[in-house]
Amino acid sequence: MQVDSSVPATEAAGEKEKETDASKASGKKYNAPVDGQSGDLIIEGTAYLRLLLVLMNLDAGKVEEVSSSPNSSWAISSLVQAAKFGDDTAEILATANRRSMDQISAKVHFYLALAYERLGRLEELQA
User: Fold this and answer.
1) What single DSSP character describes residue 100?
2) Above 50 in pLDDT, residue 66?
3) Where are the domains of the chain?
C-alpha cells in the first residue's frame, strides 16, 4: 500500500475535523440542496414533494371512495384537492424547462389524469 506524501496527514485530518465541526454546529446531518439565487429548495426537490402531496390526496380519496360511506364528501374533496394541486404542479413543471424533471413531470401528469378520471372529468383534461 502506497501512501501519498504530497499531503501531510495532519492537514487532511484537520480538514475533516473542520467539516464535522461545521455540521455539528448547524445541528444537521444533511443540508438540502438550495438554489443559490433565491435560497429556495431546488425545483427538482420541490416538484418531488408536490408529487408526494398529490399522491397523498389521491390515496385519501381512494380509501373513502365508497358512496355509502359517511365520509364520501371528504373523499371527493380530497380528489378535487389532488386535481387542483396536480394542475398547479404541472404548470410549475412546464415553466421549469429541465431534462432532469422529465421523469417527475411524467408521474405528475399520470396522477393528474388519474385524479380527473376518478372525478369523472377526464374530458376536461384532454381538451
Assistant:
1) G
2) no
3) 43-126
